[in-house]
Design goal:
binds xanthosine-5'-monophosphate; 16 helices; 3 domains; 9-stranded mixed sheet; Rossmann fold; GMP Synthetase, Chain A, domain 3; about 25% strand; alpha/beta
Length: about 525
């Protein structure tokens, strides 16, 4: 039912294979990552192929091979790194086993002319990462560029619209990378740029309507970007057949629950049920200090509260049954689970999305309209659907919420203290126009007290840590170099405005070795 990819990126295992698909989509062409050993039908519908790099050498016994359909189809092909070697090998060229590695920044000089290279300067700044290289062209191919080590860097069979690059056009360090990809998509393969948020919304709206029919859909709305965009999209498709459930576990940030209601219920007219279960959650957390135990208890309680609500809705619903559960699964989760053969696990549960994950025995079919989108595309779709920037650009917030930012036992008083401190951090970051430039920012309440002095009095109060990081993928992160005066304002306001706090520290550790959260 879903649309076939216009460009199939054949995945030979490179770290940057996903990036190729993202770049192609950034240029307006729908692209998907497909494993090299996928069934031919999966590859057949594409209009062009890009072959990714990969860690293997084509001489290894189990090295990935070029799927025959790529050449049989006669469609345009761009091979990258290992993809170049696989092409050369399959077509009767020769790949020289590694003698030396070429790694990092290199200059490539163009030695021929071809549509792939139109408008490019004679010398390209490129990023290489390979050991083997092609040292004899396949019949019918010409050399188009060489690196300063005299290695073949670009080759092509111009008449058949087949090209290959030894370097990586998808990485930022290849300065003319986007130009090369653009040339391939539009000059060589003559594709159309029809992958836009508006087109996606149109197609997906229709798809949701067809699939859901008269049934109803339930969605756990957290206020995060993914579930928010799902809510807006599904609501656009089926209106009141969608019911959203927002579980307030009491560990939310200041004003967060109100904002969710304002945005979804008032501004978008979405049927939204709020459940304030803070007392239940706090009861579960009494005396608990271990971070994993906090996560476990919050996760379990969340599932029970959500299930009870789903059962209540099902029992009370007159008319069509709730057949679907909508979820904000994204493309990277899908790729990862396909790669590791955990497809089913990813389809049924996305743990961090719904705090603890939903049990498998819930009898819903899953509706995952963002299954083929990258995060930046989700944001663009959100904006096109009219969601406010505040929601679309919101930093991620962990499912267990402030509970894992209060070190030690979670109490209502400590939650209130942290909520206020956290709000000041975010307000000041926004006022300094640095919210979007950072990836995650928050306050942490520490389980120690320190001595201070206020007026003539000695105080013995709480310590708040500020954590602000920048990251692309949240797997590694760097601490944000915020201006001193901004940090000063945050600290000043926190000690002055938040009762019981007399000291503020700034976390200057990167990840690794630290994690982003403190628990
Ligand atoms: P760490 O602390 O592992 O965090 O560097 C990486 C990213 O994951 C988020 N995070 C969580 N999200 N449930 C969630 O939904 C959790 O238990 C959890 N723990 C960490 C964290 O906020 C950061 O974005």
């Amino acid at each position: 039912m879903k649309r076939p990819p216009t460009v199939a990126v054949i995945d030979f295992g490179s770290q940057t294979a996903q990036l190729i698909a993202r770049r192609v989509r950034d240029l307006g062409v729908y692209s998907e990552l497909i494993p090299w050993n996928a069934p031919a039908e999966q590859l057949a519908q594409a209009d062009a192929y890009i072959l990714s790099g990969g860690p293997a050498s084509i001489y290894e016994p189990d090295a990935p091979t070029l799927p025959p359909i790529v050449l049989e189809s006669g469609k345009p092909v761009l091979g990258i790194c290992y993809g170049m070697q696989a092409l050369a090998h399959a077509l009767g060229g020769h790949v020289a086993p590694a003698t030396a590695r070429e790694f990092g920044h290199t200059i490539v000089e163009l030695t021929g002319d071809a549509p792939l290279l139109s408008g490019l300067p004679e010398k390209l700044d490129v990023w290489m990462s390979h050991s083997d290289h092609v040292d004899a062209l396949p019949p019918g191919w010409v050399a188009l560029g060489a690196s300063h080590n005299d290695n073949m860097a670009i080759m092509g069979d111009i008449a058949r619209k087949r090209y290959a690059l030894q370097f990586h056009p998808e990485v930022q360090h290849t300065r003319q990378g986007m130009d090369i990809l653009r040339n391939f998509l539009f000059d060589v393969a003559e594709l159309e740029a029809d992958w836009t948020p508006a087109n996606f919304i149109e197609t997906m709206t229709q798809e949701i309507r067809d699939r859901v029919g008269d049934s109803r859909v339930l969605l756990g709305l957290s206020g995060g970007v993914d579930s928010s965009v799902v809510a807006a999209l599904v609501h656009r498709a089926i209106g009141d057949q969608l019911t959203c459930v927002f579980v307030d576990h009491g560990m939310m940030r200041l004003g967060e629950a109100d904002e969710v209601f304002e945005t979804f219920q008032q501004a978008h007219g979405i049927h939204l049920i709020g459940i304030n279960a803070a007392e239940l959650f706090l009861e579960d957390l009494k005396g608990v200090t271990d971070p994993e135990e906090k996560r476990k208890r919050i996760g379990h309680r969340f599932v029970r509260v959500f299930e009870a609500e789903a059962a209540r809705l099902a029992a009370e619903s007159q008319g069509a049954p709730y057949r679907f559960l909508a979820q904000g699964t994204l493309y990277p989760d899908v790729i990862e689970s396909a790669a590791t053969g955990r497809e089913r696990a990813a389809r049924t549960i996305k743990t961090h999305h719904n705090v603890g994950g939903l049990p498998e025995d819930i009898e819903f079919e899953l509706l995952e309209p963002l299954r083929y989108l990258f995060k930046d595309e989700v944001r663009r779709v959100g904006l096109a659907l009219g969601l406010p920037e505040r929601i679309v650009w919101r930093h991620p917030f962990p499912g267990p919420g402030l509970a894992i930012r209060i070190l030690g036992e979670v109490t209502w008083d400590r939650l209130e203290t942290l909520r206020q401190a956290d709000a000041i951090v975010i307000q000041e970051l926004e006022a300094a126009n640095l919210y979007r430039a950072t990836s995650q920012a928050f306050a942490v309440l520490l389980p120690v007290r320190t001595v201070g002095v206020m007026g003539d009095y000695r105080t013995y109060g709480n310590v708040v840590a500020i954590r602000v990081v920048t990251t692309d993928d949240f797997m590694t992160a760097d601490w944000a170099r915020l201006p001193d005066d901004l940090l000063g304002r945050m600290a000043n306001r926190i000690v002055n405005e938040v009762e019981g706090v007399n000291r503020v520290v700034y976390d200057i550790t990167s990840k690794p070795p630290a994690t982003i959260e403190w628990e």
